[in-house]
Fold this protein.
Amino acid sequence: MRNHWSSYYKWLQKGHWSWLGLSRQFVRLILKVVKQEVIHLVIDDTLTLRASKKAPGSQIHHQHGNKPNLAQYVRGQCWVSLAWVIRREKQPVALPLLTRLVPGISNTGKRVAAKTLIRAVYRLLDGRKVRVLVDSWYMRRIFIESMLARG
């Protein structure tokens, strides 16, 4: 680092820059460094517990993890994430690309968020063989047809 840490902190907090642009540049870097025949993109959602009703996207969600220390329904934010999985020294590693807050509690919102994340980076992967791995919440005709239309 050439500058004092506070300079970077101020840039992150007050600077004008694009998360999307940063993510696309990260994808370009991965394409130069990692050589794979097939690119594996993974989409998954996660629930971040919240106490405040004022938190953006804070809703009551069914807690699917069946954790004994949590109620069946909890307040939280649902995030959908896109990652690129690479194999490094026989171990798979997920490189996070983008994350999007789901505005509602329906599974439709998750699929819309997933399609948005793919749309943000798919042009950079044009001409390459790509597999999109998702769990069963995303397995609906409209989502699958959207992925097939992008090749």
Summary: The beta strands are 38-49, 59-62, 73-88, 91-101, 129-133. The CA atoms of residues 48 and 139 lie 23 Å apart.
